[in-house]
Amino acid sequence: MDKKIKIVTVKLGLDIHWRGIVVLSRMLRDAGMEVVYLGNQFPEQIVEAAIQEGADVIGLSTLGGNHMSLGPKVVELLREKGIDDIMVIMGGVIPEEDVPALKEKGIAEVFGPETKVDSIVSFVESELEKENVK
Amino acid sequence: MGQLFNKEAIEEIKKEKARWKEETLKDKSGDKEYFTDSGIPMDLLYTPADIEDMDYLKDNGFSGESPFTRGVYPNMYRGRLFTVRQIAGFGGPEDTNERFKFLLNNGATGTSVVLDLPTIRGYDSDDKEAEGHVGAAGVAIDSLDDMEALYDGIPIDEISTNIVTHLPSTTVVLMAMFAALAEKRDIPLEKLSGTNQNDFLMETAIGSSLEILPPKHCFRLQCDAIEYASQNLPRWNPVSYNGYNLREAGTTAIQEVACALANAIATTEELIRRGNNVDAFAKRLSFFWNLFNDFFEEIAKCRASRIVYKEIMEDRFNAEEKKSKLMRFHVQTGGITLTKVEPYNNIARSAIQGLAATLGGAQSLHIDSFDEAYSAPTEESALISIRTQQIIQAETNVVNTVDPLAGSYYVENLTNEMAKRIRNYIEEIEDKGGIVKVVESGWLHREISDFAYQMQQDIESGERKIVGLNHFPTEKSDTEVEVFRYPEEAEKRQKDKLEKLRNKRDSQEVEMKLNVLREKCHEDTNLMPYIKDAVKAYCTLGEIEEVFREEFGLWQFPLA
């Protein structure tokens, strides 16, 4: 891929724990991606910003227990606007057993604590590669 | 004079150590350099030469006496064991009230409540911003009604209460509600004992959010709460200067203590500027530390922080009363040190950290539950946390002698070194204009994120070893852990209650109280009495905080 991958990272809703997403944003930048960190936002603003930025990926971070209520809403809003080329991934403290339901609702992948940044990068790269081949 | 070592003895020891290195150690110490968690070089072996100037009476003294190195109470845990204080908070106030009773029935000796994000951030459960957050990760408190339900059947005049208010703006509202609750129950305010957090760094540096009040206004509310409590709730600790969450966000143990102390300095200056006598309010200021796994460094940190605080209160602010100079602190074990892989290992980690807190002389303790990386604690995991504390208290015998590590060449040397580095970092903050300024400029945020970034790199490279993760990495794929579920119907319950409340209360009075508060925001006066008037008229937390947002304006968090 020649073009830099562009990812919008965000703290979902009111969740206050910024450490993970800020560190991840810097490390994704180190890995050659273009990263726009939005701070705290709700689904409507997230979708709007991602469209304006021409993002390839939205990265949602939450440790605040709002993953089921607000996470899928981002995908929903994208679909409503007819957008299917922005991938949504999530990370944070998210119970294993919620992951299938999140994926069913269109979240591409969920990364728990202790995920290596490399594995996030390679997931994003290979998924976008698949998209491009299609 | 309490000088411990004479010069000749020290010279002899130094000479002998050199000989020992030459003859016995030889090349066995290797080339690798060792450092404590916060970067202090570690020697292989410590001797009296590493504390050659130590003056026992001046540097250590006795427990309950200045400089409080050995602890703040003369008989320490023989007199009163540290309070077993486990945080609880989820769903509506009724749900948390039930958990309180479970913990108290199992030997907890105080309550400690954590709030949901809308409450912390000043939104009612029926606000648009609250959607998806009500009763998750903490309990929802919207009005005095909820406060009554939260402490229903709990003797708030007999056991101590901790309210993890985080932000000053939340503190002023909840402190007012708690006082109003006591009044409704005919409990004199003098009888209320407990703590709230009330730290402006929580709003402006440690946690990010959607709408943040400007640092100087957060700081003002922090001071308002302290000033009000010092005049009305003599047994209440109106601030718990929060090193804990700084450390979780990303600092060394040194920065953790130094930032909290820099905040204490700024607060004390402001309260004195307002005309308060330092001894009138300083007796009730408390601190909150985070203990990681570097066992001796964490113990040395606890000891050093007491020494530096005493210096600040005595030398800088001329506090006279003993109580104004002794640092009392709560410890929570390090949440971020716990792993998701092989979660039961976390019970061992937390026990070690809890033991360090005990040896460091903590006044109260919360031991994190092993399922921290999965969800809020279940009843089972919370019970293990309580039991861990009870094992330390009842089975290890460490609580029965005061500060048992005093006199260890290493621990005393490290205590001195930590104290020195804490003083230096405070000086660095003050050179940049003080704690409020380093927040406004974003300097503190940069310090935190740089550290967190470095730590992540050290973990990924394996330089920082974490058992089960990068050191002896687990072979098991996933451990099945029972996950705690927030009661989902809490949001609806809270909304229904709010609707009823808004219908039944006197809306004219509500309007009037909020308008008075609005005006007072622009005066150099303490807002607490006006907030208390408002909560008694059943103004909601969200309505009061909306006044702050409108009158003080909003601030852009530097990392965004």
Give the secondary structure arrangement, pairings included.
The complex is a heterodimer of chains A (134) and B (560).
Chain A: E1 6-12, H1 19-30, E2 34-41, H2 43-53, E3 57-62, H3 67-80, E4 87-92, H4 99-104, E5 109-111, H5 117-133
Parallel strand pairs in A: 1-2, 1-3, 3-4, 4-5
Chain B: H1 7-25, E1 34-35, E2 41-42, H2 56-60, H3 76-79, E3 83-84, E4 87-88, H4 93-105, E5 110-114, H5 117-120, H6 144-150, E6 160-164, H7 168-184, E7 194-196, H8 200-206, H9 215-232, E8 236-237, E9 239-242, H10 244-250, H11 253-273, H12 278-281, E10 285-291, H13 295-316, E11 328-333, H14 345-359, E12 364-366, H15 379-395, H16 409-431, H17 435-440, H18 443-461, H19 490-504, H20 507-520, H21 528-536, H22 541-552
Parallel strand pairs in B: 3-12, 4-5, 5-6, 6-7, 7-8, 9-10, 10-11, 11-12
Antiparallel strand pairs in B: 1-2
Helix pairs in contact in B: 4-6, 7-9, 7-21, 7-22, 8-9, 11-13, 11-16, 13-14, 13-16, 14-15, 20-21
Structure described in brief:
The complex is a heterodimer of chains A (134) and B (560). Chain A is of the alpha/beta class and 134 residues long.
What's the CATH superfamily of the largest domain in chain B, by name?
Answer: Methylmalonyl-CoA mutase
Mean pLDDT of chain A, rounded to whole units? Answer: 93
Task: Please name the CATH architecture of the largest domain in chain B.
Answer: Alpha-Beta Barrel
Total DSSP helices of chain B: 22
- Please give the radius of gyration of chain A in angstroms: 13 Å
* Average pLDDT for all residues of chain B: 95
SSE order of chain A in H/E notation? Answer: EHEHEHEHEH
Instruction: Estimate the global geometry of chain A from the Cα principal axes.
Output: globular
Question: Order of strands across the biggest sheet of chain B?
Answer: 3-12-11-10-9
CATH class call of the largest domain in chain B: Alpha Beta
